[in-house]
Amino acid sequence: MQTKGKFFDDVAKVAGGAMGTLGGMKQEAESAVRQRVERLLSDMDLVPRDEFDAMAAVARRAREEQEKLTVAVKELEARLAKLEKASGTKPAAPAKKARVKKTTVKAKAAKPTAKPTS
């Protein structure tokens, strides 16, 4: 009877040791994978989440301000049209946008060094 109990105790000790070893291996594997993923992400030059959230907030505020300004401009245009109509003056022509002259650099064609033969 004593040998059966000792056998099961030994098996339990071996199984417990194996579980501890497997747990350690799992942690090492997870750590190695995490390091590789972090290195890959840093090489990809991705934006950290906190910076993304900050820029999203800035963009949101800018959009809200732009919408407020659009409404204000429309109100001012309506008031101007109303004043012009009441005074009987001709509406002002919209201001012309300044033209920016685009300059392009043309590549010179290479001149042939040898004359073609006919």
Overview of the structural elements:
The protein is an all-alpha fold. Among the domains are: 12-46; 47-88. It is built from two helices and no strands. It has helices at residues 2-43, 49-87.
Please give the structural blueprint:
Layout: H1 2-43, H2 49-87
In short:
The protein has helices at residues 2-43, 49-87. The chain has 118 residues and is an all-alpha fold.
Protein traits:
2 helices, 118 residues, mainly alpha, 0% strand
Strand segment tally: 0
Query: Structural class of the secondary structure composition?
Result: mainly alpha
The largest sheet, given as strand count, sense and whether it forms a barrel, is: none
Order of helices and strands: HH
Weakly predicted, low-confidence segments:
none
| Number of separate helices | 2
Strand content: under 5%
Roughly how many Å is the radius of gyration? 39 Å
Q: Terminal Cα separation, in Å?
A: 112 Å
Question: Roughly what is the average pLDDT, rounded to an integer?
Answer: 81
The coarse silhouette is rod-shaped
The proportion of residues forming helix, as a percent range, comes to 55-70%
